[in-house]
Amino acid sequence: MENLKTAKIINGKEIAAQVRAELKSEIEELKNKTGTTPGLTVVLVGENPASVVYVRNKIKACEEVGIKSVQHKLPETTTHAELLALIRELNASKDVHGILVQLPLPKQIDEEEILEEISPSKDVDGFHPYNVGRLMIGNPVLQPCTPYGVMRLIESTGVDLSGKDAVVVGRSNIVGKPMAMMLLRRNATVTVCHSKTKDLAERIKKADILVAAIGRAEFIKGEWVKEGAVVIDVGMNRSQDGKLVGDVDFEGASERASFITPVPGGVGPMTIAMLLKNTVEAARRSK
Ligand code: GUN
């Protein structure tokens, strides 16, 4: 007799579709009330294959919900000054509500300086120090898309975060750090773990909420997962046999968690959905 408990799957594809549906009607309303169509400009420098795919998907998603998107494809040899000049032009354009510079940028470009040049009110990635600071003081404006999407997934479970132990594995500026701030804002007790953390397994075993953003295939073992935990897997890795897998051993973790995100179909679809949401928010605020 099988007697294994199985976690409920958090369906990111479905929740992302819900977000897009909400946005469609918000966009309609914005158009009717103000005559404004939200506009997103995506800047791609070079031809990093992953970036090319990401940018294509972002543009496609815009079309689907009624956001006007413009793409700037610049050569790999673009100088820092040239990119800076484009950003300034986009900052000044009334039709551009959101500016997204796809990362990573070529070596000759100072990424930090470019991100700081984007007007905070058009910073739909939420990477500008102003928006980072606003999130840190607990009064966010535009929030980084992936952790913002993770919060929406956690909300969908109905689990109250207040007083819970949340463990974030990974400390990047794009995911780990903002994730910690968002969980803290919901009154979780947050631990941020990283490559130098001692006793990682012991810390993970205490997590009521586990967010994995490490970038190593199935690094987190099922037996590390606390009974009843909510497990969010931000990882997207190729396993040795070529399968797309997360940072968590999904099968093992499913026997212990109460809720878990699959890979693919969990966090992935949320990132672009929240980018669209930020673009609509930026357009609304511009009015
Ligand atoms: N490269 C990888 N992830 C991201 C992201 O969320 N935004 C941008 N602009 N570039 C990325």
> Looking at the chains present, what oligomeric state does this protein adopt?
single chain
Can you identify the CATH class of the largest domain?
Alpha Beta
Cofactors, ions, other ligands: guanine
Number of domains: 2
Distance linking N and C termini? 62 Å
The neighbouring-strand order within the major sheet is 1-11-8-7-5-6
Provide the CATH topology of the largest domain: Rossmann fold
Largest sheet: 6 strands, parallel
SSE ordering: EHEHEHEHHHEHEHEEEEHEH
Query: For this structure, what is the CATH homologous superfamily of the largest domain?
Result: NAD(P)-binding Rossmann-like Domain
Low-confidence sequence ranges: none
Q: Tally the helices.
A: 10
Structural class: alpha/beta
The gyration radius over C-alpha positions equals: 19 Å
Q: How large a portion of the residues is in β-strands, by DSSP E?
A: 15-25%
Mean pLDDT across the residues is 97
What's the number of extended β-strand segments?
Answer: 11
Which key phrases capture this entry?
15% strand, binds guanine, 2 domains, 10 helices, 287 residues, 6-stranded parallel beta sheet, Rossmann fold, 3-stranded parallel beta sheet, alpha/beta
Tell me about this structure:
Helix 2 (49-65) links the parallel strand 2 (39-45) and strand 3. This protein is 41% helix and 15% strand. It is an alpha/beta fold and 287 residues long. It folds into two domains: 35-119, Leucine Dehydrogenase, chain A, domain 1 (Rossmann fold); 144-268, Rossmann fold, CATH 3.40.50. Helix 2 crosses helix 10, helix 6 (145-157) packs across helix 7 (176-185) and helix 6 packs across helix 10. The chain has ten helices and eleven strands. It starts with 7 loop residues before the first strand and ends with a helix. The chain has helices at residues 12-34, 49-65, 80-92, 111-117, 129-136, 145-157, 176-185, 200-204, 250-254, 268-285, and strands at residues 8-9, 39-45, 68-74, 98-101, 165-169, 189-193, 209-212, 230-233, 237-238, 244-245, 259-260. The strands form three sheets. It has a six-stranded parallel β-sheet with strand order 1-11-8-7-5-6. A three-stranded parallel β-sheet has the order 3-2-4, sandwiched between helices. Strands 9-10 form a two-stranded antiparallel sheet. The radius of gyration is 19 Å and the shape is globular. The chain binds guanine (GUN).
